[in-house]
Amino acid sequence: xxxxxxxxxLIVIPVVLAILGIGGYFAYNEMQGQHEQNLxxxxxxxxxxxxxxxxxxxxxxxxxxxxxxxxxxxxxxxxQKVIKGLMADNEQLIADKEMLNQQIDALKAEIAALEEYKxxxxxxxxxxxxxxxxxxxxxLKELLINMPDARRFSNLQIEAMSAAAANEYRKFxxxxxxxxxxxxxEDLVKTxxxxxxxxxxxxxxxxxxxxxxxxxxxxxxxKQDSTLLPGDLKADLEVISKPCQTALYERLADYDRPF
Length: 259
Fold this sequence. Notes:
Blueprint: H1 2-49, E1 58-59, E2 65-66, H2 78-124, H3 129-145, H4 155-176, H5 182-207, H6 211-223, H7 231-252
Antiparallel strand pairs: 1-2
């Protein structure tokens, strides 16, 4: 009898264990599925409570478009922290560059305005005396070169003649305290100075014994430094200049500004 019971137990126990194992398996699966569902529900709940604007495109306070964050502010890895710092530095550099560009544009506009102001001043302001005398000499040199009567003079002599005439022009406007316009200056030079220049040219041809002395005379007329001339050349030059100056002054006595 006991042997029978033992045999029955040996048969029943494995069956019960099998039934319990199958039931446990299904119970585990059911619990696992419920756990996953609970996680999903919790995730949905979190999205409803926590705003997602940090990770979506938005508009800043100044109206500029802000891109979504690349990664969360918390729980950053060391690499993400470095990247975030570099991104912030880059944004600051972009802002600084934009500010510098605006400053450069403003400076360019200011420079352009100053240059325009300078041009206007140079256009209407009278020439300095040095510039004016240089302009007279240049104008007279061009006049003489194109005149048939000047062909008997060398280029060096024409330079001396033009320098002498420019010096007399300086004396005249200085004595009269004249400030002539460009047109007035050119008219005076064209009307009165060629005749004086020819007179000086003929005198230089007599007084100067070499091209070197002609160059000394030219420099003397430009700088009005008598120490540049040897004594005998200086004396000769004074002799031949006197009648030329007298004739010029007589003509300039009747000068009347035409404008």
